[in-house]
Amino acid sequence: FAAWTFNGFDFAGRSLVEATQDLGDGNISGWAVGLNASVPIGNEVRLASYQAAVLRRLKSIADVRQRRITVTGEVLDAIDTLQIQWDRILTARYQVEAARRFFEAYGTLFDRGQIPSANLTDALRSLNASLINRARVETEYQVALAKLAQSVGCLLGHAGVEWSDVS
User: pTM, whole model, 2 decimals?
Assistant: First the structure.
C-alpha cells in the first residue's frame, strides 16, 4: 500500500501547490509506503466445504434408507392387515354356517311344535346378523387390498397380482 498526505497543507494560507513543492524539495514526511501480505496458514474454507458436501451426501443416503424403511414398514403392515382381514372372513363364514344350521335346526323343532316362534325368530336374527357381519368383513378385506396396492405403489391387477373372489 502507499499513501501521501498533505503535510504542508494547512489552514494558515498554504496552498496545494506549496504543499506539492515541499514534497518536491525533499520534505517526504507526508509519504508512507508499506507492504501488507496475507497468506492463509490452513485450508479451513476448503475443508469446511468438503465436510459440508460429505454431510449432504450422507444425509441424502440416510433419507433414501429412511424412505426404504418407511415403505417396507407400510407394505408389511398392509400385508398383516390383509392377513387379519382374511382370517376375519374365514371366521365370519363359519359363523354364518353355524347360524344357518342353528336356524334350520330351530325350524325343524318349530315344525314339530317343540319350540315357540320366538326362538325361531331369535335364530333368524342371529343368521341375519352373521350375514351382515360377513358382508362388512368382506368389504374391509377389499379395503385392505386397496391399501396394500397403495402401499406398494401399483394396482395389484396391473402388477400381475391376482386374488380370487372371497365368497
Answer: 0.56
89: Cβ–Cβ under 8 A, 6 or more apart, which residues?
134, 137, 138, 141, 166
Mean pLDDT, rounded, of the chain:
81
SS3 112: coil
Question: Radius of gyration over alpha carbons of the chain, in Å?
Answer: 46
pLDDT exceeds cutoff 80 at 119:
yes
**Rounded distance, CA 66 to CA 152, Å?**
16
Q: Can you name the residues that pair with 32 across neighbouring β-strands?
A: 3
Please give the DSSP secondary-structure letter assigned to residue 3.
E
Cβ-count burial 65-93 (b if 16+ within 10 Å, e if not): eeeeeeeeebeeebeebbeebbebbeebb
User: CB-based contacts of 5: which residues, under 8 Å, 6+ apart?
Assistant: 30, 31, 32
Which range (47-51, 123-127, 129-133) has the least confidence?
47-51
Q: Which residue has the cell 426404504?
A: 68
Tally of helices (H runs) and strands (E runs) in the chain: 3, 2
